[in-house]
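User: Let's play a game. I give you a shape written as tokens, and you guess the letters that built it. Ready? Here's round one.
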């Protein structure tokens, strides 16, 4: 196996680093409860998302900053800690962190100093909102099948696109999208003013889970985008988008960790109180076996996720590291689905009650296995890593 000792060490530091441990503790004891209280008072989704973004941006822990402004290195290990901790409350609470990293990653990887200065300070401070628009109505996870077009016209691109399943964190100011240039067939990444002529967003989907987050269709009709708002080289954005997805996969995995921790802790509390023929439900060996199995796999997934985050922070985003990053996302998210189902069953009829977190967790967990690449895509990436020997355990 292509073992990277430095990434293992960094992952262990992520689990036991005093600064990150203190940050996690503060989120669990202070930030998370404050956000949950605010959640209870929100009548509208957009109001909720705006408030979450503002509160997280104002926090002294720089919770939205997934990058170092001095070195332009990622700080995904810290973002992973933040997302996992917030995930022990509700998935909605952590979405500004994920969206911030997702929309800033193309700038960190390919942006010019001027582009970074123009767009990222407001994102980090919570004074501007952004979205990442990649999915198309007929493409799903097939980024290579992008049909949206951008035709060069002097110092502008004329963009026509139809995107879907766009998570919109309130009233957005700009968005990052991927388009294809018909002349060359290559793909280009563009930053587009969300208020520009020809940009329209329509809220059409009624998601199964993550119901507090607005999801929109995006239509771009003859939108003129200045060439200076291109991220990276013209016609070569496919590789850039693949690296962006690699950046956020540990964070999506951390979402699964937080959700698993939440339902597992709640299931234990319920089992300790619920009577059974053995006394309490927790006294049944079959129940303890399920709890022990989930907890062991959770800790294994945590270490893999933190190792993946450490790889990102070290700039390891290429093909040779894609398998491990995909494995973290695959295990963390699929475990969340299994944990939500198992823990709902452990709670019995009470687990079917919307006043407990199990039903919502089961709906939310399904989303994790789809976003940033469905589980089947992650499995394929891991298999490719084994076949090309970037994941290997002995002599070739």
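Assistant: Ready! My guess for every position:
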């Amino acid at each position: 196996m292509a073992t990277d000792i430095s990434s293992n060490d960094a992952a262990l530091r992520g689990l036991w680093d005093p600064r990150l441990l203190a940050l996690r503790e503060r989120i669990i004891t202070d930030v998370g409860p404050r956000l949950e209280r605010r959640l209870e008072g929100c009548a509208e989704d957009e109001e909720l998302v705006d408030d979450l973004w503002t509160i997280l941006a104002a926090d002294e822990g720089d919770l939205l900053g997934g990058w170092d402004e001095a070195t332009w290195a990622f700080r995904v290990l810290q973002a992973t800690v933040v997302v996992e901790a917030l995930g022990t409350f509700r998935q909605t609470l952590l979405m500004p962190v994920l969206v911030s990293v997702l929309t800033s990653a193309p700038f960190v990887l390919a942006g010019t100093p001027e582009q970074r200065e123009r767009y990222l300070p407001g994102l980090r401070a919570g004074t501007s909102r952004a979205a990442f628009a990649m999915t198309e109505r007929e493409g799903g996870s097939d980024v290579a099948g992008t049909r949206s077009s951008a035709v060069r016209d002097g110092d502008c691109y004329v963009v026509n696109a139809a995107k879907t399943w766009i998570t919109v964190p309130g009233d957005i100011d700009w968005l990052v999208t991927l388009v294809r240039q018909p002349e060359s067939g290559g793909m280009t990444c563009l930053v587009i003013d969300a208020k520009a002529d020809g940009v329209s967003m329509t809220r059409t989907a009624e998601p199964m889970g993550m119901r507090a987050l607005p999801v929109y269709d995006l239509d771009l009709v003859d939108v003129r985008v200045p060439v200076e708002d291109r991220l990276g080289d013209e016609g070569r954005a496919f590789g850039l988008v693949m690296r962006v997805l690699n950046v956020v996969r540990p964070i999506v995995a951390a979402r699964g960790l937080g959700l698993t921790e939440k339902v597992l802790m709640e299931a234990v509390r319920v089992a300790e109180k619920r009577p059974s023929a053995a006394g309490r439900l927790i006294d049944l060996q079959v129940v303890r076996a399920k709890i022990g199995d989930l907890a062991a796999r959770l800790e294994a997934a945590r270490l893999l996720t933190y190792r993946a985050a450490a790889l990102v922070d070290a700039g390891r985003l290429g093909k040779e590291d894609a398998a491990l990053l995909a494995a973290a996302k695959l295990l963390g998210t699929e475990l969340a689905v299994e944990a939500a189902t198992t823990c709902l069953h452990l709670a019995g009829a009470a687990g079917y009650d919307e006043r407990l977190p199990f039903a919502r967790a089961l709906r939310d967990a399904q989303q994790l296995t789809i976003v940033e690449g469905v589980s089947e895509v992650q499995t394929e990436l891991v298999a490719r890593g084994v076949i090309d020997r970037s994941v290997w355990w002995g002599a070739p």
